[in-house]
Structure formats: structure tokens, C-alpha cells
Amino acid sequence: MNHTIPVNSRTLRRLALPLALATLVAACGDNQPQQAGPPPPGVTVAKPVQRQVTEHDEYVGRFTAVNSVEVRARVSGSLDGLHFKDGQIVKQGDLLFTIDKRPFENALAQARATLAQARSNLTYAEADLLRGQQLVRDKTITDQTFEQRAQAARNAQAAVNGAEAALRQAELNLGFTELRAPIEGRIGDRRVSPGNLVTGGDGGNTTLLATIVSTNPIYFEFTFDEASFLRYERMAAGGDRDVASRGAGVAVTLKLIDEKEFMHRGRMDFVDNVIDRSTGTIRGRAVFENANGIFTPGMFARVSVPASPPYNALLVPDVAIGSEQARKYVLTVNADNVAVPKYVTLGPLAGDLRVIKGGIVAGDNIIVDGVARVRPGQKVAPHEQKPPASANAAPPAKTD
In terms of DSSP bridges, do strands 218-225 and 185-187 run parallel, antiparallel, or are they unpaired? Predict the structure, then answer.
């Protein structure tokens, strides 16, 4: 038995309104656009800098004086005077010390008297020999007597020669009482005060009075390892004379411990003839001008020497280089604005730039800013960086 529920028009209107609203909401949801993803990150790109570079090696060493002299007395006596201030610059020939001259003046006077006596004896002997020549012709004296007179004349001449030598030595000894600077340079402090007895002579027990070291020019000595020495020599044998080989005159630069740049220029002038067996290193030496006297013997410094012939290289900012375990890479941007990694072979630093020996070409767009925001294969928004005005000038390439 079926039962029919009567539905009036008011009931239908109440049911139709919610249904229409649901249909409208569904239609709006179908037409709503999907939410867009984040935009590609912005990066700065630049092409590699093309430049001629020369690799350099750095070594630590010390300054040494070209000339160093110990001032010692040539004669013994009492130190009578001091004629310099400790630590001052002295010129060659400047008077430094004086020794009491009185004993040496007496010795000189005695030597002169001895010479005068010897000359007097020589005059008498020569006159006696001259008389003997006539007497022996007249057979008044024997030949033996004549020979005795001739011998006496020769002995007198020898005595004069000996007295003259003694006089010259006495004059030298008197001159040695004045000790003068043998070289130009800076003198140290006095080792003996006036009034003390000093021991002179040519032996090893003489008294050290002071030391003098030359200051301009000045040597800089350093050591480098056997492998570097072989590398320098092989490059020099191949015709490149601008490396730190035995060929003199190679230009080098130097900086002191409180300086940031290699600002002092000098030249190599010596490489030792043996390798130290205990350290496996060989000694090199450069010479520098030191007109202002800032370089002091014993002072530490770093020297930069050429380690390769000049060559054309590509350079990128060192901050643009990433690491993947043992490999190094740079991120490049291709034609589709996608970041592509390229593995590279690194060379030395040249200021803030790094020499790239392989892995990129001159036309690559290298990401130089924003590397941390990019992953390989990610789309980017590149902005090209203008090359610096000084792109063709940079400090020497320094090997690590």
C-alpha cells in the first residue's frame, strides 16, 4: 500500500535554494587558478677574466749584511780614546779607537836612530872598500884583506836594509794605534772601554773592540726545497731565465712581517752549490737596495720569486669556486638559464682571483654571486656583472 506525501510549493523553494548554492560553489571552485611556485633566484654572472700571469713561490728568510767586520787591534796597548757613538753609521776611514801612542813613538825614534847608525857604517865600509881597490892593485894589501873589506861593505848594506824595514814596521805600528772603519756601515756597541789593555796582533787571542755591518745594499737569504730547485733548473734549461735558477738577475719582490703587499724589489744574485743533506734544502740569496736603512741584518721577511714563465690564463673570483669532496667546481649558466656545474683544475691565486687551468672556456657565464642560493640544475635569473676597470692588472699569481 503506497502512501504519497504531499509537497507544496513553499517546501520545494526551501529545498532548491541550498542545492543552487552548492552548485554555484562547486562551479567557482573548478574555475579558481592554481597557486604559482617561487620565482627563480637571482644570481650575478661574469665571464672569466683573461690575463697573462706568472706563478710565484713564497719563502721565509732573513736579511744578512753584505760586509761584516770585527774591529780588532793590530797592536797591543792601553785603549786611549773612543771616537764614535754606539750604533751610529760610520763612513769608511772614520776614526773609531786610539791606543796609547807613546811606546810606539819611542820605538819609531829608536828605529830611526838604528837606521842612521847603519847608514853611517855603510858609508865608512864603502869608503874603505874604495881605498882597498887601489891598494890591492898596488899589491899593498892582499886579496884576502880586500875581500874582507868587500864583505864588510855588503854587511853594512844589509844592515841598512834591515834598519829601513824596522823603521817601516815602527811607522806601521804607530799607525795601527789609530783604528779606523774599514767599511761604511752601522757600528755596534763598544766591547772595551778606554783605559783597558787590549791585545793586538795577528793571532786568535786578539781583543774584539766592536763590529760593523754594511747596510746598503743588503742580502736576503732563504732556502727552498729540492723539488722546487729541480723545477727551477729544468725551466731555466728550457730557455726560461726568469725563474729562481742559478742565472743571476732574476727579479724578486719582498714584504716585511707588518706589510700586506710585496712592495720591495730586488734581484737574485746567488744559489748555493750544495743541497743541505739534513734538511733537503738549498740556499738562495737576493740583493736589495736599503737606502733608508729599514732592512736590518737578522730581520725576518717573505720573498716572492718567479716560479713559471708568463702564460695566458682564465681567472674567476675565488669565492665562486665550490667543493665536492676532493673536486672543485664552478656553476655556469647555460642558454636556458639553468645552473650547470663544471669541474675545474685550480691554479694559484692572483689577488682575489683564482687561476683556472682547466674545465672552463672564455665564453662561460660563471655565477660569481649567489652561489649559495643555487642548486645544480635549477633555473636562475642571471644578471651580468661588468668587468672591473683594472681587469688587466693584478698582483703576481701565488702558488698555494
Answer: unpaired
Could you write out the DSSP letters of every residue in 163-208? HHHHHHHHHHHHHTTEEE-SSSEEE---SS-TTSEE--SSSTTPPE
Q: What is the largest CA-CA distance in the chain?
A: 205
Residue in this structure with the C-alpha cell 760593523, named with its chain if needed: 212
Find, among 228, 231, 226, the residue nearest to 279 by Cα: 226
Please state, in angstroms and rounded to a whole number, the distance separating the CA atoms of residues 356 and 313. 7
Q: How many CB atoms lie within 10 A of CB 346?
A: 16
Where would I find the H helices in the chain? 9-31, 102-137, 143-175, 226-237
Residues 6+ apart with CB under 8 A from 174: 101, 104, 105, 107, 108
The answer to whether the beta carbons of residues 262 and 304 sit under 8 Å apart is yes
User: What does the alpha-carbon distance between residue 268 and residue 158 come to, in Å, rounded to a whole number?
Assistant: 56
| 254 beta partners | 264, 303
| Dist. CA 74–CA 98, nearest whole Å | 11
Asked if 49 and 151 touch (Cβ cutoff 8 Å), the reply is no
How does pLDDT run along the chain (400 residues), one tens digit per residue?
A: 444 445 455 554 554 555 555 554 455 555 555 555 678 888 888 889 988 888 888 999 999 999 999 999 999 999 999 999 999 999 999 999 999 999 999 999 999 999 999 999 999 988 888 888 878 787 787 888 878 888 998 999 999 999 999 999 999 999 999 999 999 999 999 999 999 999 998 877 899 999 999 999 999 999 999 998 888 888 877 665 556 555 657 889 999 999 988 999 999 888 999 999 999 999 999 999 999 889 999 999 999 988 887 888 899 998 888 888 888 999 998 888 898 999 999 888 887 888 998 888 888 888 888 888 888 888 888 888 776 544 444 555 666 5
Report field, pTM of the whole predicted structure over 0.90 = no
**Grid cell digits, residue 345:** 683544475
Are the beta carbons of 357 and 55 closer than 8 angstroms?
no
